[in-house]
Amino acid sequence: MDVRIIWEIVGPVLTGVIAWFASKKRHQAETDTVIIENSTKVIAQWKELAEKYESDLKILSGRLDELERKYNQELMLRIELEKRLMKSQG
User: Is the C-alpha dihedral spanning 79, 80, 85, 90 positive or negative?
Assistant: First the structure.
């Protein structure tokens, strides 16, 4: 066989293999970039959601504190009224 004939067969095959490897690395890099971008978006969404829940929790905690304060006031008033009632009866 002539070297030119072998090179005509091996050359395109070798070029194809090199191109395949290069495109595989490029495709993997693009895939990694998309994964990183999507992960960044998801993290930002979770952070926003966590901040909203934190804000809601502070509001609800304040409301609970207010209700507890009102309950204690009403309880003290009831105790005072019961004392007066017992004094007036006995």
Answer: positive
For residue 20, the one-letter residue type is W
Check whether 1 has a pLDDT greater than 80. Answer: no
Cα separation, 2 vs 7, whole angstroms = 9
**Phi, psi for residue 2 in degrees, rounded to 5:** -85, 145
**Is the full-model pTM beyond 0.85?**
no
b (16+ CB within 10 A) / e for 28-59: eeeeeeeeeeeeeeeeeeeeeeeeeeeeeeee
Residue pLDDT, tens place only, 24-65: 888 999 999 999 999 999 999 999 999 999 999 999 999 999
Rounded-to-integer distance, Cα 33 and Cα 39, Å:
10
What would the two tokens of residue 1 be? 């066989």
CA 44/CA 38 separation, integer angstroms: 10
